[in-house]
């Protein structure tokens, strides 16, 4: 645990701030003192190896998992000790694209996209359907796809439906868990631009997890790298190639040699 | 020492599970009575539980009534009490066999499917997704199922009562050569409202128990396909056992002879 720590602070006041957040599953320590701030209207990209706790971190912020200790604030409000009803109110601010899309398989695609509008905001179904079809258009899915069920879609299409669902009710804070994984390079770039647009046009605060460096460069205002349950580096997106941090260097350039050792044995 | 420790551990696990179930039940009940409710979801569950269980429950009741008539005939004829068959069929079906067998069949059909559906939603993060879309999973998933179970099972059992008695009638008239009108009047003669009502109360409790077990085990399932499989098994087994236990308790409450 001698990784050098450098922090570039975001614009103040922060929209989300994590202080010393710990989370373990049984003996397995996943988050080991996460410190992170995300500014209002900022797009933060979190990078880090597989299984280092990126998804767990997002779920802790949402309250889907409870951190063992530490403080998580959203708009200055401490969220780790919220009661169920206040938590529901807080979650109104959030939209999330899950890594596995997590579409409701008993509902049609358009009903998935319109779900937050119909159930959360009590919009009439006809109007919600119009908006849903518009959002699906933005992720490159025609209206005919809306009548299908999620199980009838390809993996990449499911991801895009998940994305449309996450942005449909124009939340203040949007989390994207690997939005471009499983997409072809062209569609990936379309999605990158869509995410940028969400942040610029809606003024949303975005946290994106990705392994795709092209995507990170395009989306990010700032980049944070997670390693062994801590944020070991944060910096501006343009500094990512000369971070001066060997861990970040290795990750960004995708080299097997370096301070990060993969737990693999030769065949 | 080892034995004591093992017993103690088992006891603690039991207490923890009971506590967890208790909290789950309270949370679920509180969402059943607090708006917003989801009428579409409630309707869907009512149709699933009430309408689509009709064939299974109806067939069960029909054959139960028929076999009851046959069995009591062969038994009662030993002491020339064949005349009591209609009454025995009516009482057994309305008080006991309608609700219990109906409940068990529904536990197998509905409890399993609820646990599988909610369990799959859990392991594919759909339940997490619900929360991020400003929808309380208890309200959206659990409450409609509990309400549907509570209301639809009595209706199902009422139908089962009628079909069961009719099954007895069929065997009585066509196989044992009873006079139809005297069989029917025998059926009514000793049947009291409390017989049917106690059966319907049982049905409501069983419906609630089946839905509760399905939701509880599904909601807490973990892992992947295997976890969902375990949840399904646990839902059916625990619902069936609870049905038998509650059946005894409710019978005790209604018909305790002091
Ligand atoms: N519900 C859970 N129960 C037990 N362990 C878990 C659970 N969720 C995550 N973990 C563990 O936490 C670690 C981090 O998981 P997480 O999903 O956050 O990884 P990640 O950084 O998102 O990886 P990837 O890039 O592959 O998605 C993993 O080692 C995983 O085994
Ligand atoms: Mg992940």
TrEMBL record, chain A:
The keyword Nucleotide-binding appears for this protein: yes
Pfam families in the record: ABC_tran (PF00005)
Signal sequence, renumbered to the chain: none
Keyword ATP-binding among record annotations: yes
Keywords: ATP-binding, Nucleotide-binding, Transport
Residue ranges annotated for the ABC transporter domain, each copy included: 16-253
Transmembrane intervals: none
InterPro entries linked to this entry: AAA+_ATPase (IPR003593), ABC_transporter-like_ATP-bd (IPR003439), ABC_transporter-like_CS (IPR017871), P-loop_NTPase (IPR027417)
GO molecular-function terms, A-Z: ATP binding
Domain of life: Bacteria
Protein name from the UniProt record: Phospholipid/cholesterol/gamma-HCH transport system ATP-binding protein
Organism: Azospirillum rugosum
Automatic annotation (TrEMBL), chain B:
Superkingdom assignment: Bacteria
InterPro entries xrefs: ABC_MlaE_roteobac, Permease_MalE
Alphabetically ordered keywords of this record: Cell inner membrane, Cell membrane, Membrane, Transmembrane, Transmembrane helix, Transport
UniProt-annotated location(s): Cell inner membrane; Membrane
Protein name according to UniProt: Phospholipid/cholesterol/gamma-HCH transport system permease protein
Species name: Azospirillum rugosum
Family recorded in the similarity comment: Belongs to the MlaE permease family.
Coiled-coil residues: none
A Pfam family it matches: MlaE
Lineage: Bacteria, Pseudomonadati, Pseudomonadota, Alphaproteobacteria, Rhodospirillales
Transmembrane segment boundaries: 51-70, 155-176, 196-219, 231-255
Protein's membrane topology: Multi-pass membrane protein
Biological role stated in the UniProt entry: Could be part of an ABC transporter complex.
């Amino acid at each position: 645990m001698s990784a050098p720590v450098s922090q570039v602070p975001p614009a103040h006041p922060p929209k989300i701030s994590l202080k010393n957040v710990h989370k373990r599953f049984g003996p397995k320590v996943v988050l080991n003192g996460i410190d992170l701030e995300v500014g209002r209207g900022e797009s933060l990209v979190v990078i880090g190896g597989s299984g280092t706790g990126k998804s767990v971190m997002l779920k802790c912020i949402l309250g889907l998992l409870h951190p063992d200790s530490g403080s998580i604030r959203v708009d200055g409000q401490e969220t780790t000790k919220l009661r169920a009803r206040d938590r529901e109110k807080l979650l109104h601010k959030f939209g999330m694209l899950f890594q596995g899309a997590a579409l409701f398989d008993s509902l049609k695609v358009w009903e998935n996209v319109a779900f937050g509008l119909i159930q959360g905001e009590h919009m009439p179904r006809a109007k919600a359907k119009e908006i849903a079809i518009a959002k699906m258009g933005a992720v490159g899915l025609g209206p005919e796809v809306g009548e299908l069920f999620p199980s009838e879609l390809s993996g990449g299409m499911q991801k895009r439906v998940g994305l449309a669902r996450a942005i449909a009710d124009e939340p203040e804070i949007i989390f994207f868990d690997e939005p471009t994984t499983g997409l072809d390079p062209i569609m990936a770039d379309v999605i990158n631009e869509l995410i940028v647009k969400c942040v610029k046009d809606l003024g949303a605060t975005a946290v994106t997890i990705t392994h795709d460096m092209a995507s990170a460069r395009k989306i990010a205002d700032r980049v944070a790298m997670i390693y062994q349950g801590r944020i070991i580096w944060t910096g501006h997106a343009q500094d990512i190639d000369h971070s001066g941090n060997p861990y970040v260097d290795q990750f960004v350039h995708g080299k097997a040699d370096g301070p990060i050792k993969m737990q693999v044995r030769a065949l | 020492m080892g034995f004591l420790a093992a017993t103690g551990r088992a006891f603690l696990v039991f207490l923890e599970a009971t506590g967890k179930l208790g909290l789950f039940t309270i949370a679920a009940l509180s969402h059943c009575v607090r708006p917003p409710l989801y009428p579409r979801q409630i309707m869907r569950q009512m149709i699933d539980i009430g309408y689509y269980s009709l064939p299974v429950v109806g067939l069960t009741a029909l054959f139960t009534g028929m076999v009851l008539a046959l069995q009591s005939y062969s038994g009662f004829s030993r002491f020339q009490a064949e005349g009591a068959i209609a009454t025995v069929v009516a009482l057994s079906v309305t008080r006991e066999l309608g609700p219990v067998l109906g409940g068990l069949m529904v536990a197998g059909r509905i409890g399993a499917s609820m646990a599988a559906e909610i369990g799959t939603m859990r392991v594919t993060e759909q339940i997490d997704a619900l929360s991020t879309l400003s929808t309380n999973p208890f309200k959206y998933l659990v409450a409609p199922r509990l309400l549907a179970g509570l209301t639809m099972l009595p209706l199902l059992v009422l139908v089962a009562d009628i079909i069961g008695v009719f099954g007895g009638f069929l065997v009585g008239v066509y196989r044992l050569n009873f006079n139809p009108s005297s069989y029917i009047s025998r059926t009514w003669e000793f049947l009291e409202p409390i017989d049917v009502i106690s059966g319907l109360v049982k049905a409501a409790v069983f419906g609630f128990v089946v839905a509760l077990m399905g939701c509880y085990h599904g909601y807490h399932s973990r892992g992947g396909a295997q976890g969902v499989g375990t949840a399904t098994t646990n839902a059916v087994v625990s619902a069936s056992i609870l049905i038998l236990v509650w059946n005894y308790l409710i019978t005790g409450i209604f018909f305790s002879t002091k």
